[in-house]
Hints:
Elements: H1 81-95, H2 104-113, E1 133-146, E2 150-163, E3 166-181, E4 184-192, H3 204-211, E5 215-216, H4 219-226, H5 232-242, E6 247-251, E7 274-280, E8 283-284, H6 292-304, E9 309-311, E10 324-325, E11 334-337
Parallel strand pairs: 5-6, 9-10
Antiparallel strand pairs: 1-2, 2-3, 3-4, 6-7, 7-8, 7-11, 9-11
Helix pairs in contact: 1-2, 3-5
Amino acid sequence: MTRTRAPAAPPPGRRTVLAALAGVALGAAGCSSRTAPAPHRPHTPPAHPSQQSSTGTGAPSPSSALPRTTPWRPTSAEVQPAAKLRAVQLVEAIGAWGDGHGGAAAARARVAALGLPTALVGQAGPLLPAADQAALQVVDAQYGGILSRSASVLVVCRQWTRRAGTVSAGGTTVDVRLSRSGSGWTADALHPAHPGPAARSSAPDIRSVLSDDRIVLPPAAVADLRSGQVHTSVAKAMLALARTYRLEVSVVRSGHPLDVFGTSRPSDHPRGRAFDVWRIDGHAVVDPATPRSLIERFMRDAAAAGSYNVGGPVLLSGGSAGQFFSDATHHDHVHSGFRT
Length: 340
């Protein structure tokens, strides 16, 4: 792995979503599937002045104003833009509300306005905390799995809440399960991340990851690392890659399907043996404008850092048997899995 530090490029501008989208043939869905790569789409969340890497309640703010947020929207380069859009709209509707519109009843009204089952509100968990007001920013939405008529969309978000004049920062990752019918995609279930409490102490490599500004972690991933349930092989690989790249992580352990989507094979993520990266040196993996050479180099360097199972939008040759794979699920991120 080269030790040249590539500076983070400015995030690309947001592009609009095409209204009509044709269905595409999809392959096997979850991590470790082996099918052809799929098209890509660019997306960059807006920069925020408060990019806290914490989960749950953050430090009180002297101001009661919440950060301004921007709706996350996919573009036509997605495998199934409508599936991601549906999942994100649901999470945004539940996790953000104006002053005096908190609580389950108001959330059910917002979900009903989307034409989705209001019972989903009862599965929102940490996405619906008790607060007077809430703002939510989706960082990224990636596939946990995509098949022709079912999908798992992992909605990674930051959330700010105001209660009695105190603003707190947090966030979660929600595995939104969807199904497809003749009328389009609908949401069937929500599985928010539950990282668990922080361990009393962390391994040195875990602490190094948490303090490395070249490794950008969303709230659920930070909590995963603090929980003591992530293997040090994951942390060592992140640190090795951060010597060359600025990597933005989407998912580590919690918030990911327990099994490889569409199969009964356990995923490496819930066991704390994998991490996904959605942006490299400021370039979204899914963006067609991102150089393929950058993604290929990153995937090979992930393998050199110890990953036995590297998936992404490019099918690479070489490596050990089955070390590299590509499929529709991994068109929007690079997956790195570890045996221990």
